[in-house]
Amino acid sequence: MKLKTPLLSFILIVLSAALVFGQTNIRVSNPLAEQIMLGNYDPVDYAATNVIDVPETIIQGLIDRISTDSLLDYFKKLDSFYNRNTGSDTVSETTGIGATRRWIFNKFQDYSLANENRLIVSYLDFDQDVCGMDKHKNIIGVLPGRDLTKEKILLVEGHFDTRCEGGCDTECYTPGIDDNGSGTVLVMELARIMSKYTFDHTIVFTPVTGEDQGLHGGTAMAKYIYDNHIPFMACFNNDVVGGVICGNTSSPPSCPELNHVDSMNVRIFSYSGSNDSTKVSKHKQLARYIKLNQEEKVNPLLTVPLNINIQIREDRQGRSGDHIPFRSRGFPAIRFCSQNEHGNGAGNPPDRQHSTRDILGLDTNQDGEIDSLFIDLNYLKRNTLSNGANLALLGHSPPTPDVNPRDNYDRVGDKVIINLEGVDTTYQHRVGIRSRGSGTLYFDYVLDFDASSTIEIDNLDRGKDYYFSVMNVENSVPSLFPQEYSRKNLLGVEYPEFIPGVNMLQNIPNPFSNSTLITIENFSDKEYQNVEIIVRDNLGRFLRRVPTYLGLGKNEIKLSEFDNLKGMLTYSLIMEGKIIDTKRMVKVN
Ligand SMILES: [Zn+2]
User: What's the gap in Å between 162 CA and the centre of ligand 1?
Assistant: First the structure.
């Protein structure tokens, strides 16, 4: 028994070292790409000779130009690299992660050449021990925005690494066609097509590495943007976006039955603040923005529409993706993911993801050509279009209005009055209205208003709680929705406000006996004094107040000495007198 203590502390030290160091030495190989992301450039140097800048024209251009032949060619090339494990070969010209990233990099250079060198191509290098390999590269293509007064970065990503059943197997055949060749070719096709167009905001196209071993490439990129104070607008992650066939072990929320096909729906995963769907979250607001545009501006142009399914969860149960490192740093981030997918290499018959079976398809008549694809190229095209159309709209969007419930909202009877005096009276507005308990994550309805200093919304149900989101509209291009705010029935009570970049995580361990640790991430740009954790029992009775402050990054608060207690407790994060979040924990013995 005596041996246990030193062994345990050794393990703890090793674990925390890994957590502290993470990805290091993150740098951009092309200094020009960095300067553009920082906004230090003259847009005239990147002006297109033939300016195409009207979002509607660009969306039609995407419909005409996204090519299923081009997508298929990329898939065949990705397949030829045999194994794209993050730790696989970097020397060979034909196989492994090294050959893969050089091919993507060269394709990006080709897209730039075809478009007056407007796409600035670079690697994002970083160091991290992954499967015995310690140097890694993402690819980035930066399309400089035209308007430095609006300059905020939009980013679209997809991981190009793959894995077999063995997470570090660098020898197996692992073509990773759906996971995540599909996201990779989507990002490549957008880089190819969108480099022709002009946007006010800068767009970054980035195939990333290291996802399947722990979100390393996505984290390196998010960290790079955060640490360098690059003004950031939104992250679109694409991971598993081409398959339409249901396997039998997909993680919940799952598809209906083996071999069920769905090419009409796509899921958008994003953080809620918790798994409580009624919570306000700028990530959900980004998902709503995508759905609204898809329904109003994209689907009417299509013979086969795409339905956006906003998900409660941040990802499928037990799974994760490269949008999470962006979200955890306070950046709006979502994940596109097919409605139907094949699960995690298990089941009978076994599913395809993370196995040698994630292939392009079958040669059913044995003539040496694959004639039955597991990927639906038209479905993948529609997902590519949804990304591109929303990037095009955000790329020309006016600023998000700065409205808040204390200064701008008033509720009188069945009416809410939003006062925009001194905020954004020059724009037209749209207001998204969502009632609490309506069972949907989407707006009940959206209203349009001409430019004016006051917005009146009437005929509201007096007994209901509502959430309101106001967007600016300029030349029929909508801004991103700001933080969603609510007014509670007739009392007009404000709900707790989510502080951007501050997240309280679930305590570890949970359940606990002697002590437990609560981590609070602070990825905002300031430290907070006047912070406390309040612990209550399961009847809501006050037990303990733990005053603290929040430094930048991760803050850990240890709770101990609850000797006589057992059962369910709650802990709340209080900042500047307001409840920011409450979670449950279980004390045993
Ligand atoms: Zn993946």
Answer: 7
Q: Are 62 and 70 within 8 A, CB to CB? A: no
Give the Å distance between the CA of 210 and the centre of ligand 1. 10
Q: What whole-number distance in Å separates Cα of residue 70 and Cα of residue 493?
A: 54
- Helices 377-395 and 183-194 pack at an angle, to 10 degrees, of 50
Q: Is residue 14 scored above 60 in pLDDT?
A: no
Q: List, for residues 26-49, the tens digit of each pLDDT value.
A: 999 999 999 999 999 999 999 999
Angle between helical axes of 377-395 and 282-293 (0-180°, round to 10): 110
- The mean pLDDT of 4-11, rounded to a whole number, is 42
End-to-end CA distance of the chain: 21
SS3 (DSSP) at 68: helix
> How far does the centroid of ligand 1 lie from the alpha carbon of residue 577, in Å?
41
Distance 68 CA to ligand 1 centre (A): 21
Contact 499, 581 (CB under 8 A): no
Average pLDDT over residues 253-271: 93
Whole-number Å distance, alpha carbon 236 to ligand 1 midpoint, is 14
Q: Residues 68, 73, 76, CA angle at the centre, nearest 5°?
A: 125
Dist. CA 209 → ligand 1 center (Å): 10
Could you tell me if 222 and 317 are in contact, meaning their C-beta atoms sit under 8 angstroms apart?
A: no
Whole-number Å distance, alpha carbon 217 to ligand 1 midpoint, is: 12
Any idea which residue has 């101990």 for tokens? 560
Model-wide pTM > 0.85: no
Phi and psi angles of residue 282, each rounded to the nearest 5 degrees, phi first: -70, -20
Q: What is the 3-state secondary structure (H, E, C) of 333-381?
A: EEEEEECCCCCCCCCCCCCCCCCCCCCCEECCCCCCCCCEECECHHHHH
278 CA to centre of ligand 1 in angstroms: 28
Using the predicted structure, report yes or no on whether residue 210 has a pLDDT greater than 90. Answer: yes
CA 211 – ligand 1 centroid, Å: 7
Distance 558 CA to ligand 1 centre (A): 34
**DSSP code string of 177-234:** IIIIIIHHHHHHHHHHHHTTS--SS-EEEEEE---TTTSHHHHHHHHHHHHTT--EEE
Which of 246-250, 393-397, 481-485, 510-514 comes out lowest in average pLDDT? Answer: 481-485
Which of the four pLDDT bands, split at 50, 70 and 90, describes residue 417? Answer: confident
Ligand 1 centroid to residue 438 C-alpha, Å:
33
Q: Average pLDDT over the chain, rounded to whole?
A: 89
Q: Using an 8 Å Cβ cutoff, are 205 and 388 in contact? A: no
